[in-house]
Structure formats: structure tokens, C-alpha cells
């Protein structure tokens, strides 16, 4: 399979490959950008023997706060006239950022319960196209989770082949009701976009740099922040945790110490975001990181201005 | 009984008096100040026939954010050489603001579960001096809650005379463990004082006035804020609730529309306070109230500075 | 007021009377029977000066498992052409045993959250007739709970005059949904009747006597059981609690040691009842009480036979 | 690997084998008996080339209620002087039936959270001997769960390589406290043994047959019950579920319709067991299965008799 290198979580396929005898080719990428449609098209065109069986992409890199433009990647595969399956990891985007499995022509979508679905970890989801189902029939690679036949056969009568996490299924029913009925998916996506924009304004207010470079690829569920040179992000994270009980995401693998991440997804509202940004602003100061104290102010200005509309956003 | 008029909740005794055939005399007071020791001493000296049976005070007026100085009031009663019982309502101060029933010579302390004890409403507590117990033996006023004999008799064997709220008693055990063992009462009180000071700095940063006039009487559990003349506090509260899902306390009875209240008690930390203050600052702006956007900044400066100590406060 | 003496809870009015300066006259009664319509009619006819202001009855005596026949008591009051208000305590019957405030011509119904409504204690309910509301306007007795004006005035806008037990109100909403929508009140009542009948068959299977004498007055929510002479009910209760973690009700006041009570109300099903009855049968044996080991068998025979209908009862 | 065929769950290794390219040889067995030490010794002796890498056994077959005698199986492997690893599935025995990984010389023990540990499903546990760890270093089979290196490396600092089920870890801490401190493991095991014996007496009281043939192999956590010839177990299970909301285990694969299973493990006490057995006895009658109505009585006799000791078992 061809894996677009976009960050730490994409690179985890390397480990999976080692463990499961899977052959993975990484398409080199800039971690500050999403997967590159042109590079993918070019690589697929070069694969005249059609040895690549799948193109894999992480929709929203949790390690960087960069999204990939899925519809454009689909177009790239089509333009190359390549039969590879298109597989997308939506762990940290599903139910937080707009995503369309069918409409965007994805073959396998993978998701989890513990981010936008607001549940504890313990459920994962596969959405599978007819083409992927067909491919699995001839596949010879050892597999367990991706052996869908049993799940599909049992699911027809509402059962699971093994012990199901019943309590999480009740939680899922409630979460879906909150997302689809009480707030509405469009409002959920708009809320996340708004909080992401407020966070970016705070980052710039501090005089820092948002990790993602292309505005089309800004994540709505988390924001990566580059540390000023010479300052260790993990030391600042530790100060913030100890002073304000606020746990920020660390920079992973090659980004270790160079950036931190602010999450703003799930059951989250304006004032929880302001508490978060205040904790970062105060904590960076306590850690001796040279930042301007204008981030919280900038975020508040944006939130208030964008709230000065008639409609009340979901609480 | 002599009731020191310090705010709405003190005035509720009027209703209780009507219902329960209790004779109440109100000692006039300025709602922006706590009960006045000199006035109480003077009134008691004037009561040569000792007709006043009790002096009642609200320790922390929830309607105003003003505390009364209980030890000084005790001294005033003693100075007047008057036998009246001293009764104190600690509903919104117990476990948030330092309070000492025995040391301060209080006869009856009344408290509830739903504030500093972090529980749902449903439990109330009476702490009773030997003098008060003695007085109840000869009292002829009809009473139910204050008929302590049954509770005391049953309590000796760990029972209640009627159906107890068992679930709240389990909650209480946990709350006491959090307060006394995990955080420690001194740290709890210091945390509330710190949040109150940060709130007052925010109020002044907005160019508004803290309702309480005497710094010795500032409440650590809530802060009353005066609105600028010509602006309706309840309209602003409504805007804030709708825009940010933040519910502020209203001005009660004669303060209606003239002030609002910011609560900062119980299971509360720095970033919850910053979320709250950000909601007020943004919301006052949305409501068209002419405030300076310097309150959040002032609160952050104070919180960060006072956190720049080695020790980590409880999370 | 005239209070029909039917058991311990009726007698508690004596305490209330002492505390609240209420004048109570008890109409003597046999605790193994409900309130006697003829005796009430006779007493009211004798009250030519109409000094009795209310007739009070406990619908389901929790201390004995005996119900009073409310519609017949109403007829007795009417027959006596007496203007006394009719007040009924439904603490342990509401939502377990059929009860009709309006249809049965009751003036004040009192209920609580902690029995048939399946909630923790903390809410109580008053249902008030226009006549009772009118009477309260001229009443001079000191009162607090029964001072309904404030509650009614605030309730119009959905508020409470004081701190409400919000969490219990959410619980109540859910409980009402379970009772009215999911199971249906008729099914709830039938379930309780069925469990009560199974319990009585168990009692007779043990060779013991049901406390209630008149089948029209059997309680559907609990069953009182007479101990054989010479055996202490409380000792047996202690053995059962220690051996099987099953807590039975004690005999109250004059019934102390002479009877015990088996509760079967609220969120309760056939197998919970069978567990309960098995605990009693085993425990009485362990305590050396001479009972036949035929109670559980008799209850199972009845439950199975009455279940051998097509319809599935609520789980 | 050599898998001792003891029931449905042992046979699931066939599926795993298909999926993961694992070579599994089943040692034929009688499902009504545990794994046979002699047969294992014989098979291992025949493996002169030491091609068998592991001997796998299910400690407590959840599908039958039969346990295997682990210490005797270890002796059999030792007697054969064979280097195969010894792997044991304790899913439905851990924390319900005595089990000793080190003392019994097991190399890999597998367990889950959802049975004796009284938690929702979502955690699994591997206990690994130094020999197993060594073997994994050279193993070339693709694997994910059994790739322990990352878990061990991360675990040293208290972390997980991937998103942990934090809420279940809190639950585990509480469950362990209940098992080890509050009740004590010995009392837990004794409680399960006692409930199993009571259940077997009920089965015989009904005139039915316990599925397990060898008393040394009776399961303490569930009991399999053979249906009389000509009666469908699944039809009876359906009647019992609908009449009494009691869900019994079904017969799996080749036992379908021929038996049912009564679980008695985890957070379970005497009266819950009696409710369960009463449901089975009543339900078998309703389903027209010809059973004697003497099972509940026999179980009660045993429970009462074995409780007639001074010590109170855990509630």
C-alpha cells in the first residue's frame, strides 16, 4: 500500500507493517502540509504494473493539526486511472470536521469512538465500499480486525460475533442523538471551525506560528503551535500542567519539543476554549517563553464578533 | 429575634416570620456592608428587658457578595452583656470561607449541601451550642426543623428519625474527603480567596465597581458587580446566557437590574474562572454595556503572578 | 383535625401536632384494618359545631401493609354532610397502587419521591383541591411547607421560590417516562398486585399470617407478616440481614418485635421478588423460627401460573 | 500450536488460525471433560522434531462449564520433556476460580475485564513468562496484540503506546480493591464454589443433568445443563427471557439446542442466584419441559445449611 506521509500517525503504519507482514511504501511529505494530490497521481501513474493495492491517508493528522483534502486526492487517483483502493483514517475528524465517505469515493474509512463521538475509547468503525468488500475476498494477508465477513453476517441480525462493548453502544446512541438531533451536524462542524479560527488568532496574538501552512488544510479539531527556537515545548507543557491542570498535546517523533497541540473537539464550547487559551497564555509566560499577551484578547474579539449574530449556537 | 439586614437572604426572615409566628426585628443596614458590630451592640444595650432572644446574621450574603465579621459581632454581643443567642447562616460560606463555630462563640450555625460542599441540594446542617440546646427546652414556638431532640437521640445510634437522603450522605463522605484530605481546608480557603481577588481585578479592569465596599468584607465565594447607570443587568445576563451558556446571578429585590453576581465557589479552578470572566467580558460587550476590555487581562496577570510560586495548588 | 389511627405513620401526626401547635384528635382504629368509614361518618355527625377542619388518612400504611378505602371514606364524609377537608397521605402508594385525587374527591394529597417514583428521597408533592386552597387563605396556623402561595406563584413561570433539587427533577422526568410511557400505569399497578399476591401465598406457605385482615385492604406495595408467638421478629430480621444481605422492615412502635415487613414496590420484578422470598424462607429457618418450607414454592406456582398468559409483563 | 479441544471457545482458534496464518492442530476431546493430560503427554512425546511450539488450553470453557486441570497439564508437558510453551485462556475464570500463573508454570495467560473482574468489556490482560518473552524475539508470525515489546517498554513509565481505556482502568482499580481488600480472593473463590454447588443441586432437583461429567472439573463460574431429549433448549431460553427477563447462555455450535448455561460469577450473591434459579424452574415449566419442581428447594437447603456457620460471607 501507498501511505501518504503526513505526520506521526501516518508513520505508525510502519509499525503495523512490521507486525502484520504488510508491505508499505511511504510517499514523502511535508508534515506541515496534507497529502499532495499531484505527488500521489504521479506515483500511481508510475505504477504501470498496478502493484499498489491501496492509497492510505490520514484525514486529520492528530499529531500536527493538518488535514488532507480528500476529494482532491480521489480526483488524483482517478486521473491516474489506477485501481488502488482509497483508505482514510478519520479518527480525529469524524463528527468534528465534514467528511463524506460515499460522496468523496472512499473505499475504507476508519474511525474511533474517543474523539468527536465524545465516548471513551473502545469502539472503532469501518465504513467499506463494495469494491473494498470485493477485494477482501481474494486477499491473502493475515488479518483479524479487517476480516469483516463475520461482523457483516452477525450484524444482519443485530448481533456481534464476540462480546460487544454494550455500554459504549448505549453511549453511542446518546452521542448520535446529541450530534444529529440536538445540535445538528452542520452546527457541530461550524462550532469546531469557529473554535479553530479563534485558536489560530490566539496563536498569532502570542506572536507564534500555527503549524499548518495551508489555510485549506487547517484542522478544526486541534491546532499545532510551533515553539520559538530555543524553547522546549515539553518543558512549557509541564509548567502549564502543573500550574493550571491543563494537559496539552506533545510534539510527536521528529516534532518532539518543537511544538505543542491545543485540542478543541467534541463536547466543547466557547468558554471552555477561553479557559484553555488563558491557561496556555498564562503558562507560556510562567515558563519564560517570550510571547505577547495578546492571544486571549484576539480570540475573545473573534468569538464575540462571530457571536454577534442573532442565532444562539448550541450550548 | 434581631436580624441584621445585610441583603435579600437576611430579609427572607420576614417571610419565615410571617409563616411561623416568629417575631423578627430588622436592624437596618447598608447592603454594601456586613452587619455592623456597633449598631448591634447599641441595640442590645437598649434592650434592658432582654426581650431579644437571638441575634441572627448571614455570614456571606449570597445576594451581594458581602461577608459579616462574625468574631467582631460576637464581641459586640458580649460587650453589651446580653444573653441573646448568636445564630449564623453559612449557606454560601461553609467550606469556602474560613468559619469557626466554637472558636467564634456562635450558638447556632446553619449550612446546606449545595454550595461549598459541592453536593446537590437536599441536606442541611445545624451546629448547636449547649446554650442553644438549653434554650430549646423551654421554647414554645412551633417548630419542626429546629426540633433537634429527635435528631440528636437517633443520631447517637447512627440513625435518622425519618427517611434519610442516603445517596447525599455518601456524596458528603466523598466531598469531605476531597476537602479535608485531598486538598486540605487551608488550601481550599486560599483558592477561593485567590479567585475572588482575580475576579475583583477583572471587575475593575472593566471599569466597573465591586458591590462590597469594605475589603474586610469581600466574599471569597461570589462577587457582586454594579452595573453602570442606565444599563439593565438582567438584560446583560440574558445576552450572556444566550451567547455563552453562562448563567450569572441576578440582583435580588431592591438590587434588581442594578447588579449581577459572579459565583466562584466549590469545585472550581483557575481556568474555569477564566472561562467565566471571558464570558462576562465578551457578553457585556455584546450587550452594549460600555466596559473596557481589560478585565480578563488583569485577572490573568494576577493568577499567573500568584501562581509563580513553587507549590502547585490543587487541581 | 381528625386523624384515623391506622398505624405508626398515622400516629406520627401526634408529633407534628406537638411541634406545630396543631390540634389533632385520633379516631381509634384496629391497626390490622384500614380507616373505618362508619366510624368516621359517626364522628363527623357528632361534630355539630363543625370544629373538625380536616379528616386525615394514610392511604397505604407503610408500617402495616394495610390500605384504607379512600372512595368509601369520601362517601362517609359526604353522608355526614360535614365540610371538613379530606387529606390523604400516599407516600407508599403513589405510582404503585391505583389512586385518584380528583375522582375520589380528595382535598389534599401528599406524596414523596422515594417509593413508587423510584427516586432518592428529596422531593415531596402536594395535590390541592380548590376547596383546600380557599381554606388556606383564612388559616392562621403557622406553616411553611403548606404555605403553597409562593410555590404556585413561582410555578407559573416554571421556577421555584428557593433552591430546587434540580437533579431529582431530571430523575422525576425519567421516572414518569418509565411509568407512563414505557410500562404504563395500569401495568405498573397490576405488577404490584401480582407481587403482593405471590408474597401472601408465600406467607401462608410458611404457615404464617398476613397482618392485614381484610382482603379489600391488602397493600400492593408491602406485606406485613405476623411472627409466631414467642419469636422475636427483630432477631430474625438480623439473622436474615447478616446471612443474606436482605433488609426487611421492622415492626414499629406497638408492633415492635411482633411482625416484619416485606417490601415489593418500585423498580421490581418477579425474580427480585423470588430472591427476596427465598431470603426470608432460608433466613427464618436459620433463625430457628418454626416455618414450613413451602412459601417459595407457593409463590413460584402463582407467578408461573399468572405468567402463563400470552402477554409479556414489563421487565 | 496444539490446541486441546474442550468446547466452542477452544474451537475459535480455528478461525484465528485462518485469519492469522497460524498452524493449529486440535487434540480431539470430549466436550463434557477438560483437556486430557495423558493425551497431551502422548501427543507431545510423538513430536520428536519438536514442531509444536505451544500447548493451548482454555481454563474454564465458557461454552460448557467445564474446567481443565492446569497443574496436571503442566506435569504432562514436563513428563514429555517437550519445550512447547504452555498457554492458558482464563477469560471466564480469572478472579472467580483459583488460578496461579507462576506456581502452575504457565507461559502465557490471557484474561479479559468483562467476567470475574466485573467491568465492561474493553481490557484484556496477558501474563507472560520469561520463556514466552524469549520466544517472541525470534517469532516471525505477523502479530499485533501479542507484540508485547511496545507495551512493556511504555508500561515502565506508566504509559500506553496507544490510546488507553482510561475509564476502565479506574474501574479496574476499584474492582481490584473489592476483590483483594473488601472481600478477599479466598472468600471470592469460596463464594463462587458455593453458588456452583447450589446450582448443581438445583439441576439435579429438576431431574436434569449437569453437563460436566467429572466433579474435579466442575466450573465455579457457570453451569451447563443438558436438556431432556426432544426438548429444544433455545425455545425454553426464549420462554424464560420473555416471561422473566432472564437471559441464559445458549448451547454453542454442536451443542445448539441441546443445553443451556446458568452463569453465577462476578458481583453476585445468594439471593441473586435464587432469583435466577427460580426463573429457570418457573420458565422450564412454562415451556413445557418435564422437570420436577424441586430444584429451587434443593438449592435453598444447601445455601441455608452452608450459611449456618458463624461467619458472614461478603454481601
Topology readout:
The structure is a homotetramer of 315-residue chains.
Chain A: E1 2-4, H1 8-20, E2 25-27, H2 37-46, E3 54-58, E4 60-61, E5 66-67, H3 70-79, E6 85-89, E7 108-112, E8 124-128, H4 130-138, H5 149-155, H6 166-183, H7 185-205, E9 209-210, E10 222-226, H8 233-244, E11 249-250, E12 259-263, H9 270-286, H10 295-307
Parallel strand pairs in A: 1-2, 1-3, 3-6, 6-7
Antiparallel strand pairs in A: 4-5, 7-8, 9-10, 10-12, 11-12
Helix pairs in contact in A: 2-3, 6-7, 7-10, 8-9, 9-10
What can be said about this structure in brief?
The structure is a homotetramer of 315-residue chains. With 315 residues, the first copy, chain A, is α/β, with parallel strands linked by helices.
Series of secondary-structure elements of chain A, N-terminal to C-terminal: EHEHEEEHEEEHHHHEEHEEHH
Task: Provide the structure class of chain A.
Answer: alpha/beta
Shape of chain A: globular
Radius of gyration of chain A: 21 Å
Q: Main interface pair?
A: A-B, 29 and 29 residues
> Looking at the chains present, what oligomeric state does this protein adopt?
homotetramer
Amino acid at each position: 500500500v501507498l501511505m501518504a506521509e503526513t505526520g506521526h500517525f501516518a508513520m505508525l503504519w510502519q509499525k503495523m507493517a512490521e507486525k502484520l507482514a504488510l508491505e508499505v511504501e511511504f510517499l514523502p511529505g511535508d508534515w506541515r502540509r496534507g497529502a499532495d494530490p499531484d505527488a500521489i497521481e504521479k506515483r500511481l501513474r508510475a505504477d504501470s504494473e498496478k502493484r499498489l493495492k491501496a492509497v492510505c491517508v490520514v484525514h486529520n493528522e492528530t499529531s500536527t493539526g493538518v488535514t488532507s483534502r480528500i476529494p482532491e486526492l480521489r480526483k488524483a487517483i482517478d486521473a491516474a486511472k489506477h485501481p488502488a483502493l482509497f483508505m482514510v483514517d478519520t479518527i480525529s475528524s469524524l463528527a468534528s470536521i465534514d467528511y463524506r465517505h460515499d460522496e468523496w469515493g472512499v473505499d475504507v474509512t476508519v474511525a474511533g469512538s474517543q474523539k468527536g463521538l465524545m465516548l471513551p475509547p473502545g469502539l472503532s468503525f469501518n465504513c467499506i465500499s463494495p469494491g473494498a468488500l470485493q477485494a477482501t475476498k481474494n486477499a491473502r494477508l493475515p488479518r483479524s480486525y479487517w476480516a469483516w465477513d463475520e461482523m457483516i453476517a452477525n450484524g444482519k441480525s443485530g448481533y456481534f460475533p464476540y462480546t460487544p462493548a454494550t455500554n459504549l453502544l448505549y453511549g453511542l446512541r446518546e452521542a448520535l442523538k446529541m450530534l444529529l438531533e440536538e445540535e445538528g451536524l452542520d452546527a457541530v462542524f461550524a462550532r469546531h471551525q469557529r473554535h479553530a479560527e479563534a485558536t489560530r488568532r490566539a496563536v498569532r496574538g502570542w506572536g507564534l506560528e500555527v503549524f499548518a501552512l495551508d489555510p485549506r488544510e487547517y484542522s478544526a479539531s486541534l491546532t499545532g503551535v510551533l515553539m520559538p527556537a530555543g524553547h522546549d515545548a515539553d518543558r512549557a507543557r509541564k509548567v502549564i500542567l502543573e500550574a493550571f491542570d491543563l494537559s496539552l498535546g506533545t510534539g510527536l517523533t521528529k516534532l518532539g519539543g518543537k511544538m505543542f497541540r491545543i485540542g478543541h473537539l467534541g463536547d466543547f464550547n466557547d468558554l471552555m476554549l477561553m479557559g484553555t487559551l488563558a491557561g496556555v497564555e498564562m503558562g507560556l509566560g510562567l515558563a519564560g517563553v517570550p510571547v505577547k499577551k495578546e492571544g486571549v484578547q484576539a480570540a475573545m474579539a473573534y468569538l464575540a464578533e462571530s457571536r454577534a449574530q442573532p442565532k444562539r449556537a448550541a450550548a
